[in-house]
Design a protein that fits this description.
Structural class: alpha+beta
Order of helices and strands: EHHHEEEEHHE
Strand order of the largest sheet: 2-3-4-5-1-6
Number of domains: 1
Radius of gyration: 14 Å
Number of helices: 5
CATH architecture: 2-Layer Sandwich
Oligomer: single chain
Largest sheet: 6 strands, mixed
Shape: globular
Number of strands: 6
Helix content: 25-40%
CATH topology: YaeB-like fold
CATH class: Alpha Beta
Length: about 130
């Protein structure tokens, strides 16, 4: 029987700075595959872009954070941007379109491409 490969979750360097600023730990970001499978925590915006809710400590998901994930390949999740719900309500339609336009870049990445981005600190893998 063939073993399913483990999900690989990546964050951009921008998300890494955002997460550090707001004390969002990698363990919270590592729940991305579960968030995407839970329709109450994540919305498919189309074009392989998902908007996911992450709870803020002691305040819940409605006052928490929103992260945007590109997920096309079966086991690859790319967390590309996000915001605090207390700072803004949502991204603009233009920003949503831009996310959908950059999505093909991420889901066409080969393992060699990903390794190069990891080496250049453009992506950070969440263990």
């Amino acid at each position: 029987m063939k073993k399913n490969p483990k999900a690989r979750i990546f964050k951009t360097s921008w998300i890494n700075k955002f997460a550090n600023k707001y004390h969002i730990c990698d363990a919270m970001l590592a729940t991305t595959p579960e968030l995407i499978s839970n329709k109450k925590s994540c919305i498919n915006l189309g074009g392989s872009v998902y908007k996911c809710r992450i709870a803020r400590k002691n305040q819940g998901k409605s006052r928490g954070y929103r992260i945007y994930v590109i997920h096309k390949k079966k086991h690859h999740f790319f967390i590309v941007t996000g915001f605090c719900k207390s700072v803004r309500k949502n991204i603009t339609p233009k920003q949503e379109t831009e996310l959908k336009e950059i999505a093909p870049f991420y889901y066409k990445l080969t393992d060699a491409d990903i390794n190069k981005l990891l080496q250049n600190n453009k992506l950070i893998e969440i263990e």
